[in-house]
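From the methods appendix. Each design record in this collection lists the tokenized structure first, followed by the designed amino acid sequence. Records were kept in a plain field format so they could be parsed without special tools. The example shown here is representative of the layout used throughout.

RECORD:
FOLD TOKENS (128 positions):
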């Protein structure tokens, strides 16, 4: 899967980023399934981010375990954390978020202190 262009990331309503490391066997096994989701979710920009290769712009992201996923809708980060490396679990999570209205997504992103803290991880701003 070719990496989305910066322009497509800036314009995408949905960004799904997997923060990983090339040395991680779990990440390498998860990657083909993650990349295959791009065909199922054409409105989403899926981004595979090796945290060592991209250390300059992911240094503010506290990656404690792999895979760490960030799901963002427009300016709202809806999920940030580790997820079991099963594509079906990510698919269910995406389907749940994509069923929300934009207003419901914004409210969800602000509903708890943890989610409000995630808003500092706005991937679009990190890429500018």
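DESIGN:
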């Amino acid at each position: 899967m070719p990496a989305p262009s910066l322009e497509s990331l800036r314009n995408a309503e949905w960004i799904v980023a997997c923060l990983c490391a090339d040395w991680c066997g779990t990440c390498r096994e998860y990657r083909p399934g993650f990349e295959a989701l791009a065909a199922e979710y054409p409105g989403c920009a899926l981004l595979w981010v090796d945290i060592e290769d991209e250390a300059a712009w992911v240094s503010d992201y506290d990656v404690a375990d792999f895979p760490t996923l960030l799901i963002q809708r427009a300016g709202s980060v809806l999920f940030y954390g580790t997820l079991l490396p099963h594509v079906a679990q990510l698919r269910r999570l995406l389907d749940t978020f994509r069923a929300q209205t934009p207003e419901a997504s914004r409210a969800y992103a602000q509903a708890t202190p943890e989610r409000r803290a995630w808003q500092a991880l706005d991937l679009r701003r990190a890429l500018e």
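APPENDIX NOTE: The chain has seven helices and four strands.
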